[in-house]
Amino acid sequence: MSAQVNDALLPETQTARPTLSRSATLLTARDVLLQAKKNTVLKSHGRPPWYGEDGARISDAFVIGIAGGSASGKTHVARQIVQSLGSIPTVIILSQDSFYKQHTPEEIELAFASRFDFDHPDAIDMPLFASCLADLKACRQSNIPIYSFTEHQRLEETKYLYGATIIIAEGIMALHDPALRALYDLKIFVQCDSDLMLARRIRRDVKERGRSVYGILEQYLRYVKPSYDNFVLPTSRYANIIVPGSDNAVAIDIISTHIRRQLDERATRFRQRMADAGPLDLIPKDRKPDPDKEYLNVTLLPQTPQLKGIFTVLRDLATHRGEFVFFADRLATMLMEKATEFLPYRPRAVITPVEEEYHGQELDAESVCGVSILRSGGPLERGLRRVMNDIAIGSMLIQSDAATGEPLLLHLQLPVSIRQRYLAENTWVFLFDAQIGTGAAAFMAIRVLLDHGVQQDHIIFVTFLVARAGGIAVLQRAFPRVRIVCGAVDNGLREMWLEGVEEGEGQSGTEGRKVWVVEPGMGHIGDRYYL
């Protein structure tokens, strides 16, 4: 039996579905809450590196599949696992409910009459479910469909998801499709008493989905229970572990221990090696590069007396904030003007005010945007807007792990032209940070853009200065086609220990950690600019 409509099941008198107002056809507040509950990004510790020194992905996200009957407690088990893990990297809970197929008007009429089988495998868009899950597992972004339970229809809107170290996919058919099972690293089946599942379903559908008890019971007896017996329960044989739908603390603890062990084995740590990579020579603008040597794809601003004067002001510890901001904005504008030279242009002829033809050029890019690495990249934003006033600018928050010193991706807010893969392939991105020392944050930011489909040679990294002896050598080897535009090159990169703060005086204590500072450098540029 497929998820088809059957006229023999219709009552003799069918009440037509009421005509909906324009506002009722939009995504309602109830649907928003349901989607937030079903497809959730939980961030507690950030996302550590998922790539090696060559820039290639070396570890996929850890994927868990949780199946079980309707209202058996699958989502609750998923959240129990997350809570049991404690301080963990970013987790995505992905619900099968988002992947119901697009319905015809006739099917929607039946759905409102509780006469459409939503519990059959054919009701789920399994290929789309597997495709989205495969993208997330491979550390790429995905745009998840949004399904309205009040409208019984998939909406035009989608939910952008990216950046998970752990993905939990849950649904009654989560273990049914072989393509889905092949993606899971751990398969779980939630076993629950039928009476308890029915009681939970009545309470949930009345409260969250606005259904009547009569309609819930009719749908349960007609579709839900037969589907559980024929399709859901048999998939328990594929599970690695069967978890009770209640009183399951022991099972959750076993699962959490296994996940933590798997994450420890996949950990990638090489920031220290980036800091010790050693210097590489820059190509002087007046010298042809030697094809037998390895050079950086770096463009250095001409070291004019004016530029050296600006850097003297910016490096001076005695410079007050107002003067620092003024010259930082001035330098940012100069860097962005130079960076725009590397965008593609095409010839264009125009007519001047004296009616003469002028042969010039115009931008030849479908989309251009900026992405700032917070918060030290912020001082470069004003320079970009002075050069390209209406450009969209996104942000990333990348900070160091206090224990390991490795970068952690904590926040991501990217322009639409990057979040959609078909747009990202033709988008040029100005990526900016105040400086490149070890290069760990720059490395992670570039990898994020590549995960979204941005072409390597479409990334232009703009920075005030770089450390010749730092991680820029690793960046060059990993991403040789990324263009770097900078104002100065400093020779030193010094390792030091940043002391922690003792607990007391209303302040929570923090542990010290290892940091690397550029010398002579400009200090904490973000702090000097904003504070």
Automatic annotation (TrEMBL):
Known pathway: Pyrimidine metabolism; UMP biosynthesis via salvage pathway; UMP from uridine: step 1/1; Pyrimidine metabolism; CTP biosynthesis via salvage pathway; CTP from cytidine: step 1/3
Catalyzed reactions per annotation: cytidine + ATP = CMP + ADP + H(+); uridine + ATP = UMP + ADP + H(+)
Claim: Cell inner membrane is one of the keywords in the record: no
SUPFAM superfamilies attached to this UniProt entry: P-loop containing nucleoside triphosphate hydrolases, PRTase-like
Domain Phosphoribosyltransferase: 302-495
GO terms for biological process, alphabetical: CTP salvage; UMP salvage
Source organism: Wolfiporia cocos (strain MD-104) (Brown rot fungus)
Name of this chain's protein: Uridine kinase
